[in-house]
Structure formats: structure tokens, C-alpha cells
Design goal:
globular, flavoprotein, AcylCo_DH/oxidase_C, 2 strands, Butyryl-CoA Dehydrogenase, subunit A, domain 3, acyl-CoA dehydrogenase activity, about 220 residues, mainly alpha, two-stranded antiparallel ribbon
């Protein structure tokens, strides 16, 4: 099954707000154990993040992921949550009119949205890139750590823009943005702080491991 098919199937499943039992029945909860690729895993977790599936389904998903891969799964959840928050923000500023024109027409708003979109794209790209390295059979410790660090750092940057452009409505219980913000901040704290992941990445970059990784990349480019 390709990542695109996993994404499509997960979108349909999560749209029905499944419980943990439905997730188990679908087979998604044991994707890796059943022979799935890490690219498919990232696609699944991005959709889970977009859907704000809730802690029970989230726990069922993570239970099927080996410990060393969970940082990648969390980065993918964050990518999905940020994507959902961006979509809500785009819809809001397009509909909200101030001083005779939509907020989306304001230059400052457009710049903030562009920055937010860059964060979303970067986190998703980092997660997919790390998954591709794992699926190629190479050591992806650096790529996974870097994806997890970038994802954690993107949370406050992205949610700050989303809530600033939404105003007070973004914090209300009947509007979905706050659910994504709660999820994103929980995922950011899971498995270590940004400082912890920065220390791991820094240790890799300053050690001999960095030379090994760049040599590996150079060889890939030569044969590409």
C-alpha cells in the first residue's frame, strides 16, 4: 500500500471519529508490524493530526510504533495539526472583513500566513524525509531527531499566528482551533522538550557521526 492510499483511507476513517476499537479493526494501529513502510506511517499520522482524533485513538496508534520511531510519529502528528490550524486560519481570514475588505487581503496578514505555511511545509518535509531514509535501510537517527526538533519548534510559531489572526474566537470551546492547539502543545512536550532534542542534534553534528552522515549523502549524490 502506498503512502497516498494510506492517507486516503485514513482520511475516510478519521472523518467518522473512530474509537480505539475501530482503529484496531482497520489495521492501521499495527501498520509497521503488518509490514507497512515508514512513509505510510508518516502519512497516517499526518492525517491523525489533521483530524484531532483524540487521546484514545492517538494512544492506540502510538502503541503500534516502536519506541525509536515514536519521535517521527510525533513529528508527523504535529505536521498534521499545524496543517489543520493553517486551514482554519485561511478560512477565517478569507471570510472576516475589516475596514471594507477581507483580512486575507491585508499585507501583514498575508506575510504571517506565508510564514505559517512555510512552517507546515517544513515539518511535513522533514518527517517524510526521515521516513525515506529509514525505508532505504540507512541509519536515520539524525533525520528523525532533526524532524522532531523542527516540529517542536514550529508549534509555538504556528499556533501564535493562528490565534493572533483568529482573535478571541480561537479560544472558544465551540470553535475547533483550540483543540488543535491543545493537541499540538501536548505532542510538543511528549518524549522530551525542544531543548532535549536540540542537545541530541547538536551532539550528532559536533561528533564524528556528522562526517559519516555527510559522506553518505555525498555518495548518494554521486550515484543519483
Amino acid at each position: 500500500m502506498s503512502a497516498a492510499l494510506v492517507r486516503e483511507a485514513a482520511t475516510r476513517l478519521f472523518a467518522r471519529a473512530p474509537d480505539a476499537g475501530a482503529l484496531e479493526a482497520s489495521g492501521f494501529a499495527r501498520l509497521l508490524a503488518d509490514g507497512g513502510s515508514h512513509g505510510e506511517l508518516v502519512a497516517l499520522f499526518i492525517e491523525a493530526g489533521r483530524a484531532a482524533v483524540g487521546e484514545a485513538v492517538e494512544a492506540a496508534l502510538l502503541a503500534g510504533v516502536p519506541e525509536h520511531v515514536r519521535p517521527l510519529a510525533l513529528a508527523a502528528l504535529i505536521a498534521g495539526g499545524l496543517e489543520a490550524a493553517l486551514a482554519l486560519t485561511l478560512a477565517h481570514v478569507s471570510a472576516r472583513v475589516q475596514f471594507g475588505k477581507a483580512l486575507a487581503k491585508q499585507q501583514a496578514v498575508q506575510q504571517a500566513l506565508a510564514d505559517f505555511a512555510c512552517e507546515v511545509a517544513a515539518v511535513a518535509a522533514a518527517a517524510h524525509g526521515a521516513a525515506a531514509v529509514i525505508d532505504s535501510g540507512q541509519d536515520a537517527a539524525f533525520e528523525v531527531a532533526a524532524a522532531r526538533l523542527w516540529a517542536g519548534q514550529a508549534v509555538p510559531r504556528g499556533t501564535a499566528v493562528a490565534h493572533q489572526l483568529h482573535g478571541a474566537i480561537g479560544f472558544t470551546a465551540d470553535y475547533p482551533l483550540h483543540r488543535h492547539s491543545v493537541d499540538l502543545n501536548r505532542w510538543r512536550r511528549t518524549g522530551g522538550s525542544d531543548a532535549d532534542w536540540a542537545a541530541r542534534v547538536g551532539a550528532m553534528v559536533t561528533g564524528d557521526w556528522w562526517a559519516d552522515m555527510t559522506a553518505r549523502s555525498d555518495r548518494s549524490m554521486e550515484h543519483g
